[in-house]
Amino acid sequence: MKKFASVGVFLCVVSMFLCSQIVEDKDIPADMKAILSEKTLVVAMTATDQPPFYFINDEGNLVGFDVDIARKMAKELGITRLVINREAKSFNDVVSMVASGKADLAISKLSRTLMRARYVKFSTPYIVLTQGLLFNRLQLARYTSEENVRSFIRGFEGKIGVIQSSSYVNYAKENFPKAQIVEYPTWDAVVAAVVAGDVLAAYRDDLEIRKIMDSLPNSALTLKPMYFTDLTDPIAIAVKSDNTQLLSWVNTFLEIQAYNLTSDELIKKYLIK
Amino acid sequence: MASKILKNPFVILLSIALGVAFGFYNKGLAIQLGVIGDMYLSFFQMSVIPILITAIVSSLAQLMKDKNVQKYLIRIVFVFLAVLALTAAFGTALGLVGKPGSDLGDKTTATLNRIIKTSSQNQDQEMALRNPAGDSVAKKTSLFDFFLHIIPSNIFTSLSSGRILEIVFFSIIFGIAVGFLKDSSSNFLLDLSKSLLEAFQKLINWTMYGLPFGLFFLIGKQIAEVGVDIFVAMIKFIVVFYAGGGILFLACTIIVWVRSGERNPFKVLHELIDPIVISFATRNSFASLPASIQSLTALRFDPKTTNLVFPLGLTILRFGNILYFALGACFVAQIYGAVLPTQAILVIVVGSLFAGTATAGSSGLLTLPMISLILDPLGLPVESILIVFMAIDSLIDPMRTFLIVYANIATTTLIADNERSTFGAK
Asked: What is the number of structural domains in chain B?
């Protein structure tokens, strides 16, 4: 009987010992410790606004879904100084910044691609967008009749506009091998090219296409969207490859937050007043 | 006495006016009571197909026995082709001169845009890129299908489902066959057809007494279902279409007046009030078949010819649709700022002729997708603009139907002889 009691006491002592270990700073993995000790979290976003993910609103404040995520993370980490670095010109630049350690995280409407995954670690997606094409209706009617639109898209021949150095350059090569890919510096330039008929279609995620359909006054007459139910565009957070603890923390964070928004809900939440 | 009141044109016009007011001031009730109007319409349509068959069969059989059959047939073909071509050319000219789709302004464009976006028809926006199996099957409108479906595999199926084109085709073949029979064999059939035709016409005559009531409810419902802002946005198109319809109406009235040999043109119009009102209110060209034949007979046109030419014309000469398609194609081209070289104008003329003719046997919204027969060769988009056309069709359809009926009455008078010597010599 006494023997059992002593085992119990021993176990208690061991468990207390273990518990106290978790809150001891010296056992926090190095990557996480660096962030906590600096009391600074550096998050990279591209220089160009990407509403509803990150954009300067009418009052001049940086807001959006990605900004909300970054702020919430800083709060959960107990970090007082959140630095949002917007030096990156393109989405690939954002990845480079994380890979080189200039930023801790990239929360920048970043598509998870295999090419980028060579350089950085990706979290689980916090929103999964659908890929879509935005056609110039008049051009499309010259290529095909309405009954054959779907089979035409499967063998897409013609010019397809994408943002340069974006994930859609690769998506386009992969999904529309016969198309002639034209790269533009910004999404606005891609859309302008479609409206002008310089390219037959613009290729991006459904959210951006829905935004154009909502904002252009004659969109339904002149443009036609087509969303691909089987082509997704998972948006995830990039972490430097050494920072495995940070990555695991980010994943746990996302799991607990359980963001589960669709493109339309996101537009409604951040863009429609 | 009461019968005279009910058939008085002013009573009919009054009931239309009351119907408009009813639909305007009490939308809910007008839509509910629209059922009464629909019932009346069904009662009206009930005997249309038998009349169609008996009229074509008996008149064609008699014509075949006539020595002058060749002369008549050549006249029919010539006049039909001429009026079709004229209508298509007129519609195209109307679209080019009236410019219904040019300079619409931002507000109009925005309204059209909103209507297209909120339409339930505008849902064709998803596909699986890698899996063709899940594709929604879009209906292809082709001229080939149209010709393919002219010959019925079973005439009773065609009859029971009211496929007018097949029924007319059968009636023509059957009428010719009866015409080739010996008199002793065919007389019975001809007499039977004649009695049937008269009996059905009697029935329709009775139905006409209910016209003021039927119109009141039909019009009330139509007005109640009209949405306002789309009509404001499309006002230019609607006005140009109605102006074109007005011009055709004048031309046709003059033709009928001259051909009838009647001195007073208003007397001619008075005789034609029934088909005019019925076609406008029911939006069903065949519903006005009996009344039109009676009006033509009352104007003393040879019933033998009228009984053949009018039903035939009603089936294949779709003047209203041709005019509408030609104008609609010009409208779409103008909205998209497409330049129309001579070649494209020719495509519109010929295309509207074919597209209009291909609507034979159907009516209302079902006919609208045929416009792709013109827009596809022109390389103009159909899908989004079709939604706009559908939205305004409740205002366009009455005029379209009226034009089919009225222009066919005029065409018939060009072919049929008049009892009075023609050109008013008497």
From this structure: 1
- Residues A141, A63 within the same domain: no
Which CATH number fits the domain that encloses residue A50? 3.40.190.10
Distance from CA of A234 to the nearest CA of B (A): 17
User: Scanning every residue of chain A, which has its alpha carbon at the shortest distance from the alpha carbon of B115?
Assistant: A220
Name which of B324, B325, B328, B330 is nearest B345 in CA terms. Answer: B330
Do A149 and A110 share a domain, yes or no?
Answer: no
Same domain? A223 vs A135: yes
| A242 and A228, same domain (yes or no) | no
ipTM above 0.95, yes or no: no
* Residues A119 and A179 reside in one and the same domain: no
Q: What are the residues whose beta carbons fall under 8 Å from the beta carbon of B346, sequence distance 6 or more?
A: none
**How many angstroms separate the CA of residue B137 from the nearest CA in chain A?**
8
Range of the domain at A52: 27-126+236-270
A76 found inside a domain: yes
Q: What is the count of residue pairs from A and B with beta carbons less than 8 Å apart? A: 88
Q: Do A138 and B336 touch (CB under 8 A)?
A: yes
> Which residue from A140, A218, A229 is facing B109, i.e. has the nearest CB?
A218
Q: What is the pLDDT of residues A179-213, one digit of tens each?
A: 999 999 999 999 999 999 999 999 999 999 999 99
B127, B140, B388, B389, best to mutate vs chain A, most A CBs in 10 Å = B127
Helix axes B289-298, B303-316, angle to 10 degrees: 140
Look at B381 and A230 and tell me if their CB atoms are within 8 Å. no
The number of distinct structural domains making up chain A is 2
Question: Residue B1: its pLDDT value, please?
Answer: 59
| Nearest Cα residue in chain B from A224 | B125
What pLDDT sits at residue A20?
Answer: 47
pLDDT of residue A36: 87
Beta-carbon separation of A150 and B135 below 8 A: yes
Q: How many angstroms away from the CA of A164 is the closest CA of chain B?
A: 23
- Tell me whether residues B113 and A230 touch, CB distance under 8 A: no
Tell me which residue range forms the domain holding B271: 2-124+138-424
The length of chain A is: 273
pLDDT tens digits, residue range B170-191? 999 999 999 888 888 888 888 8
Q: What is the CA radius of gyration of chain A?
A: 23
**Residues of chain B with C-beta less than 8 angstroms from the C-beta of A151:** 132
Distance from C-alpha of B309 to C-alpha of B412, rounded to nearest angstrom: 6
Strands, sheet with A105-106, edge to edge from the N-terminal-most edge strand:
A81-85, A40-44, A105-106, A238-240, A120-122
Indicate if A89 and A117 belong to the same structural domain: yes
The CATH number that applies at residue B369 is: 1.10.3860.10
d(CA B85, CA B88): 5
pLDDT, tens digit (0-9, with 9 covering 90-100), for A217-250: 888 889 999 999 899 889 999 999 999 999 999 9
> How far A219 CA sits from the closest chain B CA (Å)?
7
**In a shared domain, residues A44 and A98:** yes
Residue B159 placed within a domain:
yes
